[in-house]
User: Which sequence fits this backbone?
């Protein structure tokens, strides 16, 4: 089995205590089905190009430069070396600034999770910090430069290691009041609340991620597999939405149905189907390299 590749390597520091660590991607979209854009007439792949909005000429890479619009059609040009000089320099240190209760931060500030694991010669200090946080039930707030940006990171114990979650800055999080300001203040009838509580109680369970499918990816996998094999693909009919005119009666009906209907579990071969289609798609396009748009 190939060892995972670290996204970042540095040191975790608490005061005068440091240990070498590495960050690994915890959530990835690399297994999703990806498509190339083709010319329908020739079947050839198309290439993205940057074009001057006024002249229509193609702008080569060396002539592309970043610009900030100050007014309509007016820009401040920022050269690559100017941007590099303005970005904080990375000292490869994940410095812990405080310990907080594990549930203190609102989930809306969570950005992207990373596994945080010790490097050689850092296992003892790493274990001390991990077990110390477990014992006191706290999380750590740290900061460092990740991928050329100064980031705040929430660090929590996770099994034998730690989870480091990058946090959104305050200016990046939209205030909830902007969205909820016009939500009407409605007094719900006691019977409705009781029925809703009953329905919720019948649906109580636990979260097991393996019980949930990415239905979009699964549908794409089935479509790709059918096209590769030259078989017809049956379109899925959209379910008809019911429109209950009486909310109380709809709650009563739902409460009765909740006691009779078992929870549906995912099909056992859903992941197998997706992997088969992905593998088949890759074999058809072997030898062609993928390019990321700049």
Assistant:
């Amino acid at each position: 089995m190939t060892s995972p590749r670290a996204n970042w390597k540095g040191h975790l520091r608490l005061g005068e205590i440091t240990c070498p660590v590495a960050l690994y991607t915890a959530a990835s979209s690399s297994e999703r089905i990806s498509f190339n854009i083709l010319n329908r007439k020739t079947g050839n792949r198309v290439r993205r190009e940057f074009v001057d909005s006024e002249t229509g000429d193609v702008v080569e890479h060396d002539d592309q430069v970043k610009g900030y619009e100050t007014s309509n059609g007016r820009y401040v040009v920022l050269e690559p070396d100017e941007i590099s000089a303005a970005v904080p320099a990375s000292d490869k240190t994940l410095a812990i600034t405080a310990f907080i209760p594990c549930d203190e931060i609102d989930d809306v500030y969570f950005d992207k999770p990373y596994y945080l694991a010790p490097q050689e010669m850092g296992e003892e200090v790493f274990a001390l910090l991990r077990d110390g946080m477990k014992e006191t039930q706290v999380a750590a707030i740290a900061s460092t430069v990740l991928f050329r940006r100064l980031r705040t990171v929430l660090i929590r114990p996770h099994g034998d290691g730690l989870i480091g979650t990058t946090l959104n800055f305050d200016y990046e999080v939209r205030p909830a009041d902007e969205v909820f300001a016009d939500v009407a203040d409605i007094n719900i009838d006691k019977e409705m609340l009781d029925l809703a509580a009953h329905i919720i109680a019948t649906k109580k369970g636990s979260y097991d991620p393996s019980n949930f499918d990415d239905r979009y990816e699964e549908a794409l996998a089935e479509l790709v597999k059918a096209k590769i094999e030259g078989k017809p693909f049956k379109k899925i009919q959209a379910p008809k939405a019911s429109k209950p005119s009486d909310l109380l009666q709809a709650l009563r009906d739902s409460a009765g149905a909740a006691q009779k209907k078992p929870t549906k579990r995912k099909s056992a071969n859903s992941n197998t189907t997706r992997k088969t289609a992905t593998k088949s798609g890759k074999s058809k396009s072997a030898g062609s390299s993928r390019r990321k748009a700049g």
Summary: The chain has a mean pLDDT of 83. The first strand starts at residue 8 and ends at 14.
